[in-house]
Design a protein that fits this description.
Blueprint lengths: L1 H24 L17 E7 L6 H10 L8 E7 L6 H12 L4 E5 L13 H8 L6 E5 L3 E3 L3 H11 L4 E5 L1 E2 L4 H17 L2 H4 L13 E5 H7 L11 H11 L4 E5 L4 E3 L5 H15 L4 H14 L1 H16 L4 H28 L9 H21 L4 E2 L2 E2 L3
Parallel strand pairs: 1-2, 1-4, 2-3, 6-9, 7-10
Antiparallel strand pairs: 4-8, 5-10, 6-8, 11-12
Length: about 400
């Protein structure tokens, strides 16, 4: 039985590795260029912030220091989405000290009751009525832009006539929860949303990474802005789908040279975040979501469980020739976990630290998938930072 389970696991790992390799092989990378144009369009950077006291100062500082564009070419809007911590106080104090005319602050209003505004959609929608840029760049408050990132992205969008440019960032891991889960989830996104297919205008596959969404203002207007996606929990993916469906140009690139993001700083935040997004990101497709959970179980925890089973058989003294073969296959399967981390880490700038806990990471993901389905369908505990996502 152990041998059969290992063969199933190795087959699943082989298929998964092949898909990941193909996706990353077709993933274009955007690299920083020091090319300076004599003229730039005006760019509006929008940073929605809800209880981001730990991140907001680093984010805003990085944006302002990343570029020398003057106020007539750059405006940076921080939208406080009625935070219950001191996010707004931190930004206002920073603005008073810095006195940079490019930095603007919008204290968000209460959410309207005309529809179920979720996530950052209401904050972004309020900012959209204030900004004056020809390009609108929406970034999350946990993002850190690198020098010349804005100019590089806008230059590329102009040259390639892109309506929505999204970048997959470098992933920063701090706590154990991030090391165990985040690299695996990044690989899963690359497998589920093949870069080549996303960037092919002839396919329906679409994806965008919420931490970096650069729109032409005209394209954003055609979509109806964030207001048209008020009730979408995973609005980034839905906006990408809408861009493609409307015949506009979508591009998803590797952007670790331009930016980094640390998404979750604790087990609690990671659990709340992924259980919010997984099932909704799969468009509430129960079959495909359960298939994903099964795949994760077979690829990651199953080889470790087989190793425990072999150890138990050895203790009982019922070891045979097939068990030696099984032990060798366990070694291959576990080594493959390291290989997957190395392969994905090259594009997300994430080293393979704690790779040997991939079995734990896979188990957490399976549990998060099941919980995401339950939360989304029942509304029980379906929140983001304590805010309910149910109507």
């Amino acid at each position: 039985m152990i041998l059969i389970l290992l063969l199933v696991s190795l087959c699943a790992i082989a298929i998964y590795s092949s898909k990941l390799r193909h996706s990353l092989a077709t993933a274009p990378r955007l690299t920083i260029t020091n090319e300076r144009k004599s003229e730039y369009p005006k760019i509006s950077v929008v940073i929605p912030a809800y209880n981001e006291a730990d991140n907001i100062l680093h984010c805003v500082t990085a944006v302002l220091q990343s570029t020398q564009l003057p106020p007539e070419k750059l405006e940076v809007w921080v939208v406080d989405d009625q935070s219950t911590d001191n996010t707004l106080t931190i930004v206002k104090s920073f603005q008073e000290q810095l006195k940079d005319p490019r930095l603007k602050i919008l204290s968000g209003k209460s959410r309207p009751t005309d529809k179920n505004w979720v996530g950052k959609n209401w904050a972004c929608s309020q900012a959209a009525t204030k900004v004056t840029g020809d390009f609108l760049l929406f970034i999350d408050a946990d993002v850190k832009l690198k020098p010349s990132a804005i100019e590089t992205a806008v230059n590329h969008a102009q040259t390639e006539h892109i309506d929505l440019l999204s970048l997959a960032p470098a992933i920063v891991c701090g706590c154990l929860a991030e090391w165990v889960v985040q690299p695996l989830m990044v690989n899963n996104l690359a497998v589920g949303f093949d870069f080549g297919a996303v960037n092919d205008p002839n396919t329906e596959i679409a994806f965008a990474a919420g931490p970096f969404m650069l729109f032409r203002r005209s394209a954003y207007g055609k979509l109806g802005g964030h207001a048209a996606f008020a009730e979408e929990v995973v609005e980034d993916v839905e906006m990408a789908r809408a861009i493609k469906k409307a015949g506009m140009k979508l591009q998803l690139l590797l952007g670790s040279d331009l930016m980094s993001v640390r998404m979750y700083r604790s087990w609690g935040a990671l659990w709340e975040g992924w259980t919010k997004n997984i099932y909704q990101g799969a468009q509430r497709n129960l079959g495909s979501t359960l298939y994903f959970a099964l795949s994760m179980a077979i690829i990651y925890p199953l080889p470790w469980l087989c190793l425990l089973g072999l150890g138990y058989k050895h203790l009982l003294g019922i070891w045979g020739i097939w068990d030696y073969i099984s032990l060798g296959l366990v070694g291959v399967a576990i080594a493959s976990h390291y290989y997957l981390r190395i392969m994905g880490g090259k594009d997300s700038d994430t080293p393979p630290d704690f790779w040997w806990l991939s079995g734990v990471g896979g188990t957490v993901i399976v549990a998060a998938v099941i919980t995401s389905i339950i939360k989304t369908e029942t509304g029980w505990g379906w929140t983001w930072r304590g805010r309910s996502l149910t109507p």
